[in-house]
Amino acid sequence: MEERVFERGGVRLRALLWPGAPERLPVVFLPGFLGPPEAYRAEARALAPHPVAALGLRGSPGCGAPERGWSVEDFLADLGFLLEHLAIPPFLLSAYSSNVPLALAYAARHPERVRGLLLIDYPARVPRPGADWVRRMRKARPDLPEAALLGIHAEFGPFDAGPLLSRVRAPVLLLRGNPERGGLLDEGEAEAMRAALPNARVVAFPESGHEVWDPDPGAYLEALKGFVAALEGGR
After folding, report:
1. 16: closest CA among 70, 65, 61, 73?
2. Which of 38, 68, 152, 229 sits a CA distance of 20 to 30 A from 23?
C-alpha cells in the first residue's frame, strides 16, 4: 500500500493506492461521508491484482479542515482533483452512504472516465444537515475536527443528483440494506434510481443494515468482484 498526499487550495487531501496489474480494471473507492480510506484494505485484498485506490476528501482523517469551503461543490472539486492527479485509467467508482450523490454527479459530468458505478445504500439526494447534526456527529465521530462539523453544518447541501441520472452512461450496481435494520435506501428509492439510470440493477442484502458487508462480508465481496468481472468482460 502507498499513500499519496496532495494539496488543493491549501487543503490537504489523501489517497491510498494498492498497485496492481496495469491491464486490469482499476477500482476507486469513495468512503462514506468523512470516512477514512484505510477502511478498504479488505476490498483491495479481494480485488487483487486489480489496481485499487481509496480517497480521502477534506475533513476525513488525515486531511485538511479549512474554516470555509464545505459545500457539495467543494467536495466534488476534491474528488475531481484527486482523480485527475492520480491519472488512473477509466475505472469503476464505488461510493458508500451520503457520498453516493457525489459519485453520481461525477459520473454524469465525466462519462469518459467511469467504466462502472457501485453505489451502496443511499439515495440520489443528500439533505442539508439538521439542527442537531453537529451534536450527534461529535458523539458518533469524536475523531473529526470541529471545523469540519461546523463548516458542513453551515454550508453543505441539500444536493439532488436525481436530474443527472439519465446522463450516467456507465453500468450501475446498487447495493441496499434492509431499512428495518438501519438501511438508508428503501426498495422504492432503489427502484426509482434503477428506472432513471440507463443501465442499472439492484441487489438487496436483507440481513444487513446500512453496512451491507455486515453480517456477511463474503456476500458483499462476491457482489463487488462479480460486478468488476462483468465490467472487465464487457470491454
Report:
1. 61
2. 38
Question: What pLDDT, on a 0 to 100 scale, did the predictor assign at position 22?
Answer: 95
Residue 17 has pLDDT above 70, yes or no: yes
pLDDT of residue 233: 87
Quick one: angle between helices 72-86 and 100-109, nearest 10? 60
Residue 151 has which C-alpha cell? 463548516
The pLDDT, as a whole number, for residue 235 is: 57
Helices (H) then strands (E): counts for the chain? 7, 10
CA–CA dist 138, 146 (Å, integer): 8
Distance CA 19, CA 26 (A): 9
* Cα–Cα distance measured from residue 198 to residue 117, given in angstroms and rounded to the nearest whole number: 12
Three-state DSSP at 159 gives strand
Domains of the chain, each with CATH number or no CATH = 2-233 (3.40.50.1820)
Burial class of residue 194 in the structure, from the number of CB atoms within 10 Å of its CB (0-12 exposed, 13-18 middle, 19+ buried): middle
pTM of the entire structure?
0.97
Per-residue pLDDT tens over the stretch 36-45? 999 999 999 9
C-alpha cell at 11: 487543503
Contact 55, 79 (CB under 8 A): yes
Q: Is the pLDDT of residue 205 over 80?
A: yes
